[in-house]
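User: Quick sanity check before I run a bigger batch. Here is a single chain. Can you write out its predicted 3D structure?
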Amino acid sequence: MTRNMGMADRLLRVVVGAMLLGLYGALEAPWRYLTLLGLIPLGTALTGNCPLYSLLGISTLRKQPRTPQA
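Assistant: Done. Predicted structure follows.
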């Protein structure tokens, strides 16, 4: 698995995932389980790879400038 997410994208996903998971205790039973969808952005942020980005050929990862090797 190659990384295709930059740091800003990963940070945003951690925040959104944590917010969704934080709502778990505040909602009633049928809606409570929808908050578990917060595991998806949290998991993609931790791995640095988004499968949807891979399918669409998108990458928010900055390319590192190549340094000449001696």
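The chain has one domain: 7-56.

User: Great, the batch can go ahead then.
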